[in-house]
Amino acid sequence: MSPVLPIVLDRLTLRLGGAPVLDGLTATIAAPGVTAIVGPNGAGKSVTLRVIDGLLRPDAGAVRFRGGEGARRALVFQKPALIRASVRDNVALALVPLGLPRAVAAARVEAALERVGLAGRAGDAARKLSGGEAQRLAFARAIVTGPDLLLLDEPTASLDPGATEAIEGLIAGLARAGTKVILVSHHLGQVARLAGDVLVLAGGRAVEHGPARTVLADPRTPEARAYLGGELPWTAFAAAS
Predict the structure, then answer these.
(1) How do residues 35-69 score in pLDDT, each as one tens digit?
(2) What is the pLDDT of residues 117-153, one digit of tens each?
(3) Could you tell me the pTM of the whole model?
(4) Sequence ranges of the chain with CATH classification 3.40.50.300
(5) Span 157-181, pLDDT tens digits
(6) CB of 180 within 8 A of CB of 23?
(7) To the nearest 10°, the Cα dihedral for 179, 180, 186, 187?
(8) Which residues contact 10 (CB under 8 A, 6 or more apart)?
């Protein structure tokens, strides 16, 4: 059992710019491996990740982890934010708050770069990497701290098929090694390949949650059927982004 599971989303409510984004969102994520959060644009998927990570505080409700607030979390965005420094230094930046001895930190950085296939680029300028390499660097920076929970917000949205395959391989490998992964994705093929369970959001609420095979093949609720079957526009359930 992962040290963060179960993750309880308890009646999360949030307004941004006066618009409701989360509307009493309630769900319990207990399955190991990859959980995918899907739903139309404006459903609250990315905001949910940020609330779980602690970057956003809900107006009401709470997120609870089995390991408490000490659970180690890392968030990878769709577009990685890289500092003007080397590949190695971008990864090392994540370890600064831990205050590790220099040799220990260096070894962890090299191991993370090796894991994502960038060991040979450690001294290169990070901003000269291709899109796929930059995203792999973002993964290295996320995993170098040894997170219990990895949150991924459309991590392959702007990548070509080869880079997407490489990132999906990283995600699958991390999940097999015991890291809990929560993935937001619009690509249902990717969800089917990676996720063990699926949480469907609509209008800032959880409308369906269950094993991926069941939810994707035979959704029970009208909202999930409409989204997964492409029957309604992406913005049908909410106006907030």
Answers:
(1) 999 999 999 999 999 999 999 999 999 999 986 76
(2) 999 999 999 999 999 999 999 999 999 999 999 999 9
(3) 0.91
(4) 1-72+152-241
(5) 989 999 999 999 999 999 999 999 9
(6) no
(7) 50
(8) 26, 61, 62, 63, 64
Residue for token pair 């070894």: 107
Helix axes of 161-176 and 131-143: crossing angle, nearest 10 degrees: 10
Dihedral over Cα of 38, 40, 41, 42: its sign: negative
Burial 40-65 (b: 16+ CB within 10 A, else e): bbbbbbbbbbbbbbeebebeebebeb
Q: Are 193 and 156 in contact (CB under 8 A)?
A: no
Report how far residue 83's alpha carbon sits from residue 73's, in angstroms, rounded to the nearest whole number: 21
| Cβ count within 10 A of residue 11 | 13
CATH superfamily of 1-72+152-241: P-loop containing nucleotide triphosphate hydrolases (3.40.50.300)
* Beta-bridge partner residues of 62: 10
